[in-house]
Here is the input.
Amino acid sequence: MNAPLLSVRDLHIVFDGRHGPLTALDGVSFDIAPGEILGVVGESGAGKSLTGTAVIGLLDPPGRIAGGSIHLDGQRIDNLPAEAMRKLRGRRIGAIFQDPLTSLHPLLTVGEQLVETITTHLPVGRAEARGRALQLLKEVGIPAAETRIDQYPHQFSGGMRQRVVIALALCAEPSLIIADEPTTALDVSIQAQITTLLKRLCREHGTAIMLVTHDMGVIAETADRVAVMYAGNVVEIGPVEEVTRRPRHPYTAGLMASIPSIHARHSELHQIDGAMPRLNAIPAGCAFNPRCGRAEPFCRDMKPGLPSASHAAACHFPLTEPAHA
Amino acid sequence: MPEPSPILTVSAASCRFDVSPPALTRLLSQQPRRILRAVENVSFAVERGTTFSIVGESGCGKSTLARMVVGLQKPTEGALRFHDIRRSDGSFGPPRVQMIFQDPYASLNPRWRVGDVIAEPIRELRLRQDEASVAQRVGDLLEIVGLSRADAERYPHAFSGGQRQRISIARALATEADFLVCDEPTSALDVSVQAQILNLMVRLQKEFGLTYLFISHNLSVVRHMSDQLAIMYLGRFVESGAAEAIFSSPRHPYTRLLLDTIPDVERPNRERKPMSGEVPSPIAPPPGCAFHPRCPIAVPDCSAVAPALRAMDDRLIACHRTS
Here is the structure.
């Protein structure tokens, strides 16, 4: 593997609360290669969005990075001063969020927003920036871009707004885009358009994406590799086909089996009993042990580490065979 | 197993909303009235003890249809009729209808204890004579949905999303409901929790002979739950029939595209061809077949005449090009 574009090592994020610190990320490590799409999947509260937030340096107090490091292209970015981080954000790391309506300024035309972003990050004049904005809008598939560029966000539909947000993220040709649930607010038919667009643009521009979502289907169709998160840890990471077809961690296996199939009807869905623990009640040892069918007493004492293999699971007793047929 | 008989028949129901600007504005700017056709000429019947699902994208009218069924919305035209049923306790009468909402955070009063949330319909309908038997019933209901009796004393904020949805289900069952309208009951939940709730719903259906009208945009969830299925597009049914038949051989081009575009965990990194275009506004639907601008097999005729829903083999389809 080439030198990674993004390298997150042993990242700890802690929220200082009234009742003492809460550990939200407990030693998260992963790499993203240039041009690669890494899917980060997990259920609510697993820490997947928080990881993305930390990478773009938008972690708000009382949250703070309590340990570990984030390197972008070999440069350490987790301890940069706010001003330097602000320059880097948008220029080298783009961001796409779930709700395209709140990501856009309602009182500025989409053209003004694109031009402002371009002139902030690149040494170009307004006229040239407008030309580039127009070209970007065409590239993300907005019909009649010449007229649309002077319209306001409310005049766009949800899918079209998300295309504008993608154009904004691509403005300064960043090498990495953090996409946090980019298709969750959209209908299925529009969702397919947006993921196809993201995939195509990344291929053409060589942009890497960290795709954060709870939807295993979106990951399976879009990502090259996937990291599965549970209670602030990466529990499994590997190539998307490997992880979805031959999950090694019991949580991933349970998660895959609990998704209803579109191809066949089963009388009962596999279910993982219980729910993700709250941050103030994360079990000792492996955080998944109370819900795990394979847990042994040992799992309550010792937290399993994530081995450094291309397909790795943080589990003392990983599955070797597919858990479900 | 009750003998098959429709518990609900909907005949040619339509629901239109007048979304015109105020009369004076309209007069000054010479705009015509604007009518939003949320549901247009929809007919179907639901058999007792089965699940009838309605699938469609945002704005297709599926939630309006659900609201009409529970009586929160009057149909502009057409009629909805519930048929009297005989219950296991021997009583005979119209079915009791309840609704389960999408967002379990918004559908429970945060200032009421869970026990009161569930007891409210029992007290209101006078289904139990004294407070002791109400409390007894509340405890039983909590156990039926997989919570513990002691949970009656707690407030909704102490529960996770999945547990709250269990409370919503217990509240619906408290009325001794026969017919549940479930509007996206698992959309706000994580997949592992979704599986728990879907399994619970299937178990309750078997145990109490419940009938479900299940509204969802998630096709794999619908496949898991449904006996009968209808696909809606811009207020109309485009295809309806037995769920198994539609999933194994979708025939309307919209159904086919919908099934083709959903992400599939079983086939990673499939190159899919996304459906072009977006759902048009129901205020100004395209003329003729509303789907024709996005349809890959449309011919000029499709933009002229709206296709009627007609019987074709084992199902109903509204398409000129399907035969």
User: Anything to note?
Assistant: The longest strand of chain A covers residues 20-32. Chain A has a mean pLDDT of 89. Chain A has one domain: 6-92+172-313. Chain A touches chain B through 45 residues (CB under 8 Å).
